[in-house]
Amino acid sequence: MGILKQLYLSIFLGKRFYRSMAVVIFLFALSYLIPFLFNIALMALGLLACLLFLDWLVLYTKSNPVSVERILPERLSNGDGNTVYWKIVNHYPFRARLLLLDEFPEPWQIRDFKMNSVLEPEEKTLLQYVIYPKERGEYFFGDLYIYIKTPLQLMIRRRTFPAKKSVKVFPSFLLLRQFEFMAHITEPGNIGYKQVRKTGHSLEFEQIREYVSGDDIRGINWKATGRTGGQLMINMYTDEKSQPIYCVIDKGRTMKMAFDGLSLLDYAVNATLAMSSVAITRQDRAGIISFGDKTGNFLPANHRSTQMASIVQTLYNLNTKFLESDFAFLHKLIKTNVTQRSLLILFTNFESITALNRQLPYLRSISQKHLLLVVFFENTSIQTLASGQALNVERLYEKVIAEKFILEKKLIIKELQQYGITALLTAPEKLSVDVVNKYLQIKARREI
Can you tell me the mean pLDDT for 415-431? Predict the structure, then answer.
């Protein structure tokens, strides 16, 4: 009984059968007016029944007519395109038409995904598709379903392949190689980086060499020059290394705002991963601080080979609790754990000057001992609303209010700069590149 039920549940009639059946019914109906069509309709019905039986017989000649395997990456990159593969082999002795369905994780709400393929006898193929996860965490893929049709296409056989598997979505790591490559560029004028003229002197001595035209005469080493009998020698300095760089992530409710499917917190997490990779590549020490309502995480700055793995694991578990952030707790956390002067890159979001003024005393106190870079976000939806012409009164009100919010963001920058705090206002999608640009500027100017 169980076998018959499985057989019944795996059989479907194809569109070609219903179209053929419609023609037969039309012939039977027409035979009331033209009697000789009745025999033709009977023969057509019999032929259709024979072909349907033949199609069923051919479909079920093999117990395992098609093999399917899903190939998933070990981990998925949040917000990026991740390629998933289907490995398919046709074991039928004829060309098979296949329709493939996958059970995606329920939170993704992907209900209409399907792929078609036509395989010759014993042909193997590798199909691929790209998925874009929007949240970090562990997700579960379900079974694979494949619908098989013969060249007759009257009947469809469904096969189910158990393929349940879990996969973790980590912060965006696919662009790390690109950022690591950029970190080695000594004159970052390409690939989104701004070229910055270096000023001042670094304190980290590298070597003494002969003076050539164009060198800064302030670096001439007169003692070494005296020992060479008149050949000018100059001290060479290099950028200071092994400086502590901390990315500070606000986990408050304002960071839950979403743009293009990703929350501001996820954008900050992805930018932190890219920033940490560049800092470690340039032999600085990277660390992470996160804070919310009376709680936080602290990962000490380091540049050892295992630091990136620790950073990825820390960022993987970051989530917001929809509560107001406690900047007093952040001030205490930094004062307790960060004793050396460091570059602190604070990812947060202020929507109004009033919101900034509530936290400004803590930011000023932090900036007195460290170099503080406050990064907050442009509201791209408001930017769109403020652009264009106002063709009616309602649109005029919307445009004025949007421009008011944009002005508030500019006032926040002015207020922070008034107290010597560096600020960066950027669109969420440009966050990673803009933050790395700012870091390279700070290093080039030797502000830390």
Answer: 91
Which whole-number Å values give the CA distances from 179 to 46, 174, 346, in the listed order? 68, 10, 20
What average pLDDT score do residues 127-155 get?
89
* CB hemisphere CA count around 173 (13 angstroms): 17
Residue 37: φ, ψ to 5°: -75, -15
Give how far the C-alpha of residue 371 lies from the chain's centroid of Cα atoms, to the nearest Å: 29
Judged by DSSP in three states, 73 sits in coil
Pick the closest to residue 433 from 89, 95, 243, 182 (CA basis): 182
Give the long-range contacts of residues 400-406, CB within 8 A, separation 24 or more. Answer: 405/351, 405/379, 406/382
Q: Check whether 56 has a pLDDT greater than 60.
A: yes
Domain 66-170 sits in which CATH superfamily? Immunoglobulins (2.60.40.10)
Distance in angstroms (rounded) separating the CA atoms of residues 363 and 448: 18
Inter-residue contact 320 to 251 (CB < 8 Å): yes
**pTM assigned to the model:** 0.75
CA distances 26 to 19, 122, 152, 266, Å, are: 11, 40, 21, 60
Within its chain, how far is the Cα of 125 from the centroid? 28
Element (H, E) at 87: strand 82-90
Range in 104-108, 186-190, 256-260, 322-326 the model is least confident about:
186-190
**pLDDT per position as a tens digit, 202-246:** 555 567 788 887 777 777 877 877 778 778 888 876 556 688 999
- Cα 71 to chain centroid distance, Å, stands at 20
pLDDT in tens, 163-173: 899 999 988 87
Domain-by-domain residue ranges, the chain? 11-58, 66-170, 176-194+241-445, 204-238
176-194+241-445: CATH topology is Rossmann fold (3.40.50)
How many CB atoms are located within 10 Å of the residue 351 CB? 17
How many H-runs (helices) and E-runs (strands) does the chain carry? 12, 21
Q: What is the mean pLDDT of residues 191-202?
A: 45
User: Is 66-170's fold the same as 176-194+241-445's?
Assistant: no
Instruction: Give the mean pLDDT of the chain.
Output: 84
